[in-house]
Amino acid sequence: MNITIIGAGYVGLVTGACLAGSGHQVTVVDRDHARIAALKRGVMPIYETGLEALVAETVAAGRLAFTTALAPAVAACQAVFICVGTPPRPDDGHADLSSVYAVAAEIAGALDHFTLVVTKSTVPVGTGDEVEAIIRDIRPEARFAVVSNPEFLREGVAIADFMRPDRIVVGGEDGEALSLMAELYLPLTEAGAPLVSVNRRTAELIKYAANCFLALKITYINEIANLCEEVGADVEHVSRGIGLDSRIGAKFLKAGPGFGGSCFPKDMLALMKTAQDHGMPLRSVETAVAVNDARKGEMVRKIIRAAGGSVQGKTVAVLGLTFKPDTDDMRSAASLVILPRLIKAGAHIRAYDPAGMAHAAPLLPGVAMAESALAAARDADLVVLITEWAEFRTLDLDQLRATLKTPLLVDLRNLFDPAAAEQAGLRYVSVGRGASPEAMPLTGHQPFAAMQQGLLAVS
Ligand code: NAD
Ligand code: UGA
Q1: 331 lines ligand 2 (CB under 6 A)
Q2: How far apart are the CA of 330 and the centre of ligand 2, in A?
Q3: CA angle at residue 221 from 215 to 223, to 5 degrees?
Q4: What range does the domain containing 248 cover?
Q5: HSE on the CB side for 365, CA within 13 Å?
Q6: I want to staple 300 with a disulfide (CB 3.0 to 4.6 A). Which of 159, 323, 341, 440 is the partner?
Q7: Closest residue (by CA) to atom 19 of ligand 2?
Q8: What CATH number is given to the structural domain containing 314?
Q9: 5-28: b (≥16 Cβ within 10 Å) or e
Q10: Predicted local distance difference test score (pLDDT) of residue 435
Q11: Ligand 1 atom at shortest distance from the alpha carbon of 11
Q12: With a 6 A CB cut-off, is 147 part of the ligand 2 pocket?
């Protein structure tokens, strides 16, 4: 099929490259001239494993092209995908749909024959109706159908997620449109991806319900991690112990500094708003947002406690700045909250991130960037791991210990084995592992903690 994608960001670019990779003829449009010029030179605007190679391959095969000219690309295609951003509105947290609506109006002006208008951006329930109304208003005679096709890819593993999705959700009422969508995704459904065909509003809601559920899972395990520290339990084992229950599932049960990223925080706010507007507040989602916001402050207090009650005048080495590994995306990264608070508490921060430093530097004034993990740690009073990049996993802990002024490692992602860290001579503080040194002084549960210690000693 001949497909046009509007928006050359994480979703648009990956969708375009993957659809071209599965045999379609794709044109990706963006209004950002510099971005399109770079893409034409083979330079990716985002850090995403495998993307550059897939783009190069599909461009060379003549199946993928880039342009800033929306109208000719829409006039020539059978399906146009809207993949522009839907950030939160600063005033009320609702999804800002101005880019989606602007693109809908531009598409209307360019329609030439029956065209599928596919909303892939994450949009609140009812947005498809509005997109349809905008197009109908501008071009009453045009032949088109608006379909919702939310995207579930994760940054860092976007190509694998797109090519082997758990499911493809398509929402619409028009039979011709739905069969065209089924044809478009045939390479993926033939490879085993289930196609969930629903009405448009249901498809729009599925996307928010999925993201919020995943965020609830993370929030829950983070609260359980806090409890683990109090009672001398180990959250890693709790996650495994509950995750093996197939009704719960093992994924998204990693405790950490709280979820971030371009989507969970904004989508939770947007769903909360939609629910409130309909008089059906989602208390679980509201609570998870509050708990996750508070978590960054808890992490700051944890770091300061581990440092002996103050970071005033201390050098803190920070490993990892992005909201998760394998991306350079800094949107709603935990580091953006934790680091300024440590600076306010008097710390000097020296940070290293394998891919995020260029984006992070302007967002984190006062943070010195280092060229490696060990360079960040040189003569530091403590090291704090915020993002679990694979290269940190293989850090030589003896070398890290020798590099630090004080042998203290605060691991907010439980990346390291406590025994290995302690064997290297590091004082090791992690998340939700009740045997960590900072959990023990808490006296409220002394008998139980003592009992646990006793059990650990015999096991
Ligand atoms: P992004 O900010 O990375 O990219 C959006 C692109 O759209 C930008 O390049 C921008 O220049 C372009 N754009 C904006 N207005 C335009 C216009 N009028 N004409 C042409 N181009 C225009 O955004 P993203 O992260 O790809 O997210 C896009 C949507 O997909 C959002 O709704 C998001 O919630 C959703 N989503 C994102 C992810 C993810 O992992 N990032 C995953 C699933 C869904
Ligand atoms: C998330 C969803 O996983 C995708 O399905 C969805 O398409 C996307 O949002 C979106 O709508 O944009 P993404 O934000 O790329 O993907 O990253 P995730 O892997 O989901 O991680 C989100 C945040 O949760 C990160 O800060 C991560 O560190 C944190 N997380 C994740 C945990 O703290 N624990 C976990 O067990 C999993």
Answers
A1: no
A2: 13
A3: 105
A4: 222-437
A5: 0
A6: 341
A7: 154
A8: 3.40.50.720
A9: bbbbbbbbbbbbbbbbbbebbbbb
A10: 58
A11: 26
A12: no
Can you tell me which atom of ligand 2 is nearest the CA of 323?
26
- Consecutive sets of 10 residues in the chain, 459 residues long: mean pLDDT of each? 97 98 97 98 95 98 98 98 96 95 98 97 98 98 97 97 98 94 96 97 98 98 97 98 98 98 96 96 98 98 98 98 96 98 98 97 98 98 98 97 98 97 97 66 40 37
* pTM attached to this predicted model: 0.94
Residues with CB under 6 A from ligand 1: 6-12, 29-32, 35, 83-86, 99, 102-103, 121-122, 151, 153, 155, 262-263
Same domain, yes or no: 336 and 406 = yes
Residues 170 and 315 in one domain: no
Beta strand 168-171 with 195-198 is parallel
Catalytic residue at 18?
no
